[in-house]
Amino acid sequence: MYYDEIALMMIYSGNMAGTDPNAFEYLEKVVRSHSRRILVQSKRISTHCGNTSVGVQDIFFVLRKDKQLIAKLKEALRIKNLKNNIDDELDNLCMFEDNNDENISNIDRPVNEKLMILDSITRDMNTEEYVEYSKSRETSFTNKKVSKFKELIGVQNLSNDATEILGIISRDLIFEIVQWSIKVRNEKYKGKKDKPPFKLDFNRSPLSLNEIEEGVRRVYFNLPYRI
């Protein structure tokens, strides 16, 4: 269903070497499971607050420990005019006691880390390679047909706003999986000095399903929020 999009997302994430074809179905399952687990937690929040459906604010509460992701999602919604009063909704959120929130000043650190990774990925590209890479940057789970993504995650009665958020989360999830999978690959060749730390070039062997599975395991081990 999303094999082409996932392939492009993996290029954007630093994997120029290709991927085991079996990995695409596996990654679709990971995206589906991740989205549904977020929705299960969000539904509990929504029900506790007396609402009948999952809203943007419910998803944000589930993700609240990942301040950088929350900031990114809010900005994406503002840009697309999906929720003009998102801040008002968050202010009125039915809150639970939480004493473990990270300081908001820590948001810039992961943003800068990702910019460093993207710079490393594109630094040695020629014009043709960069043009192709730029196309992959526009790939999304939801930018063409929201209903298709709803079908993937198996939930139809979800607002477009909430679906858009899950699409962005899923795209970021693919990025993190690829980066961890590349680290897994590089650990096999610690003595090699010519390996780029954040990408697999075109002349490398494709990422294997085993490497991607280990990448997924490490993503969940390091996930800022729990689902």
TrEMBL record:
InterPro entries noted in UniProt: TFIID_TAF13
UniProt keyword list: Nucleus, Transcription, Transcription regulation
A GO CC term assigned to this protein in UniProt: nucleus
Keyword Coiled coil belongs to the record: no
Primary subcellular site in the record, as a coarse category: nucleus
Subcellular location: Nucleus
Domain of life, source organism: Eukaryota
BP-aspect Gene Ontology terms: transcription by RNA polymerase II
Protein name (database record): SAGA complex subunit spt3
Transmembrane segments: none
Pfam families: TFIID-18kDa (PF02269)
